[in-house]
Amino acid sequence: MRIPIKSERDNIFILLPGIPARSARGFFGYCSVVLLRSETGWVLFDTGHYGDRELLIEALSKQRLSPGDISYVVISHLHYDHCLNLPLFPQATIILGEKELEYARSVHAGERVDHAIPDSFESLLTNGGIWLVQSEKALDPKISVFETPGHTPGSIALLFQGAERTILCGDAVKNAWEFMNGCSDMVLGDPKAACESIQQIRKCGTVFIPGHDRAFRKAGDGLEFITRIDWSITAQVYPESRDSELYRLEA
Ligand SMILES: [Zn+2]
Which in 34, 97, 165, 178 has the greatest CB count within 10 A? Predict the structure, then answer.
């Protein structure tokens, strides 16, 4: 879906919408996967996980693109729900926080515990090159990425400065609840830094695409959603038919 922001020249497309849901059996891990046009090529922000792979390819083809057309893949952080489809983009340059790579290596070495970092994360990073972000990095005059530590120590977010200042938050802001409350319920880095990152994001943007929720715009002391959730869970539970709907979330 194209997000309804003010300028036609702001080419930002939410390919897969983030879903703010958990289950009694663990994470669904459906993150926002976003496509942007930069001056030097198409940029993908986060990739989703294996369960998203087919839908991601389909969503790209609706934009008349194939994975080979993507020049840059920004990985907000190395949790599996954001990075497992990196192998679809072997030619793309990966953009990742330098501290995130150090963090994932420390997890791999057994120095820290984070079960959401894939065991094979190093093998995901063998693409057409990797840019490690320290503090901040500009891709073109309108697009830059910057550190947002807290959720993980090396998380990064992306700022698109078009007619509006749109921030792709990654999991520094997972959902509207975290944005409004200024704190996160899943912090693997420094809790104080997590709150400061949310404040920084609030200050710098006017439109926000959280890691796992609808896009919204600041409106007075609150917010106004600008995309919707329409998500359902179906299951094959005997004696029901194959796709009986167990749950639907429309918001
Ligand atoms: Zn996530």
Answer: 97
Ligand 1 geometric centre to CA of 149 (Å)? 14
Q: How far is the CA of 239 from the centre of ligand 1 (A)?
A: 34
CA of 70 relative to ligand 1 center, distance in Å: 21
Q: Is residue 130 part of a domain?
A: yes
Provide the 10 A C-beta neighbour count for residue 215.
25
Q: What is the pTM of this model?
A: 0.95
What pLDDT band is residue 112 in, cutting at 50, 70 and 90? very high
Any idea what the CATH number is for the domain that residue 215 is in? 3.60.15.10
- Ligand 1 centroid from CA 29, angstroms: 6
